[in-house]
Amino acid sequence: MDPLSEVLSLLKLQGYVSGGFIVDENVGFKFPGHSGIKCYAVVSGSCWLSVQGVPDAVCIQAGDCVLLPRGLPFFLAADLTLPRVDFPCEVAPTTPRVINQGARGCFIVGGHFVLTGAPSEILLNSLSPIVHIRSKSDKAAMRWSLERITEELSDPQPGASLMAQQLAYMMLLQALRLHLQEDADKGSGWLFALADPQMRVAITCMHNDPGHPWTLQELANRLAMSRTVFAQKFKSRVGTTSMEYLTRWRMLLAGNRLKSSDDPVSAISSSLGYETESAFGKAFRRVWGCSPREHRRRLET
User: Fold this and answer.
1) Could you tell me if 12 and 43 lie in one domain?
2) Which uninterrupted H or E stretch holds 109?
3) 167 and 130 assigned to the same domain
4) Is 187 within a domain?
């Protein structure tokens, strides 16, 4: 499994809302701060998106997709000077539907994914407050998912709720992939490092065999780079050292196993390359802020 898929597979989907809504020509929708990530695509029309703390509003048009990963309040309107009303957020997650149906304006579909766990921090902190997917080729890549979710909302069939959820999740993944390809040279952090062939190899090595006693020199050798050059490039592209990244990845895996299995701490420790449970416990506490056993007890309560 590739690193992006691995991190996404560890994300805990605590809740979701999928559906559609129309931003009409007379008023704008105010959205409160949110947890997790919102992913929207414009089916028809256009409107303005203004996110709190972001200086410039962006115009989103038919075929565009936006991700809002930082949880900031935002506003959608045909004109930013229009009156503002609160968006009806109390939509049941099991009932995807179109809000403001029948109005004329900008038709938007998508989902709100409430994520939990440390892996979500790795992903969301790698993204800017607004991720705007708008190039012609990117719109073509999003078109299939956009058409399918629109069909599910306009003519619900048996299983529509689950289908809408999965299609919205596909939109999210596709948008992340396109953003990674389009803005690879502009950003830094774990996500953008995956677009660098050399850094992707190094990260993949650590993900494929987290229990291996990786060293800075061995990773550099895998890439035919000097130890110094590799260390500098990894820190520049990822924002942390390779050994810090490896430790954090191991602890994310450990946290997941403590939650999803009954494996003893000693077994988890040795499988992740730690010779002693004590060394593993110290590393775990640095990342999670508690001991492995305390972490498991908290999850059980």
Assistant:
1) yes
2) strand 105-116
3) yes
4) no
Query: Do residue 172 and residue 203 come from a single domain?
Result: no
Q: How many angstroms separate the CA atoms of 233 and 188, rounded?
A: 11
Q: Which of 182, 205, 235 is the last residue of a domain?
A: 182
- Asked if residue 190 is part of any domain, the answer here is no
Which long-range contacts does 53-59 make (Cβ < 8 Å, 24+ apart)? 53/129, 54/129, 54/130, 58/130, 58/132
- CA–CA gap between residue 273 and residue 42 (Å, rounded): 47
Q: Are residues 88 and 170 in the same domain?
A: yes
DSSP letters, 205-273, are: HHHH-TTS---HHHHHHHTT--HHHHHHHHHHHHSS-HHHHHHHHHHHHHHHHHHH----HHHHHHHTT
**CATH code: domain of residue 273:** 1.10.10.60
Q: Would you say 75 and 28 are in contact if contact means Cβ atoms under 8 Å apart? A: yes
pTM, rounded to two decimals: 0.69
**What type of residue is 171?**
M
Can you tell me the distance from the alpha carbon of 26 to that of 10, in angstroms, rounded to the nearest whole number? 42
* Whole-number Å distance between alpha carbons of 227 and 109: 48
User: What pLDDT score was predicted for residue 14?
Assistant: 63
* Residue for token pair 């007379």: 26
Range of the domain at 79: 3-182
Q: Which residue has the tokens 């991720």?
A: 131
Whether 137 and 181 have beta carbons less than 8 Å apart is answered as no
Least confident among 84-88, 142-146, 270-274: 142-146
Lateral strand order in the sheet of 46-51: 58-61, 46-51, 74-77, 28-31, 84-86
The total domain count for the chain is 2
Residue 219, in any domain of the structure: yes
